[in-house]
Amino acid sequence: MRKPRLFSAIAAIVLTSASAFAQQAPASTGATDHAGVVGRYAATWFAPVTLSQLNAAAGNANELFGTFAVTPIGVRYWMNSGMGLDLGLGLGMTSGSKADTAGSRTTTVDAPSAFGLVLHGGVPFAISTGKHYSFLAIPEANLGFSKSSVKGTNDDISVSGFHLDLGARAGAEVHFGFIDLPQLSLQATVGVALTYDHSTLTNGSIESAKSATTFGTTTQNEPWSIFRSSVAALYYF
């Protein structure tokens, strides 16, 4: 009779301890929304990148250099609770033509065609984490290439461009766990970046090149730019 009583006592102690531990331990999805997305991929987008293209409507050689924006789309993956990885790819293409009709004669002029490619990489660090938010610091880089051309009177005119961003952003990622959607989040950040651009214009045997290096904050002067380039939604699968 003693053995059953001993087993019952041991079982009671184990069950009581397990119950107390379960109340104190975090759930399997993590004690915070951020912990619940560790090891999961999120679909998101990154700030638009400005690349060089040809502006065929310009009146002089310097104005032949134009720009267009490409937005990288990609993923975020948290390798652990403190460090993640951002990867993105952006593509942009433009082309067109203009037709003028005078009587029975129609003249068609090609608009510049352009192609752009952007590779984005970043390493987000979770500096501080709460129940539904994380404060982040994100070193990041953008590498961009572009090519633009149009048929000229005698020779084709083309512009090739190279773009490099090296910088970092800081801000917060807020999860919607307070409405039972912890896999959905909004991230708002601001940052600084060192940017280098190099463009080469070729018009027959004439070649022109220009380069620019800038350093500054990534939010522009227009008030809506903070929403266009600094706020992103993420959804973790």
Descriptive terms for the model:
two-stranded antiparallel ribbon; 12 strands; Porin; 8-stranded antiparallel β-barrel; about 240 residues; mainly beta; 3 helices
Distance between the termini: 54 Å
The proportion of residues forming helix, as a percent range, comes to: 10-25%
Quick one: overall form? Answer: elongated
Would you tell me the overall average pLDDT? 81
| CATH top level assignment | Mainly Beta
Largest sheet: 8 strands, antiparallel, barrel
Strand order of the largest sheet: 1-4-5-6-8-9-10-12
Spans of 5+ residues with little confidence (pLDDT < 50)?
A: 13-29, 220-224
Counting DSSP H or I runs of 4 or more residues, the number of helices is 3
Strand content: over 45%
CATH fold call: Porin
Write down how many β-strands occur, each being a DSSP E stretch of 2 or more residues: 12
CATH architecture: Beta Barrel
Total number of distinct structural domains: 1
- Rg, nearest Å: 27 Å
Query: Helices and strands: which structural class?
Result: mainly beta
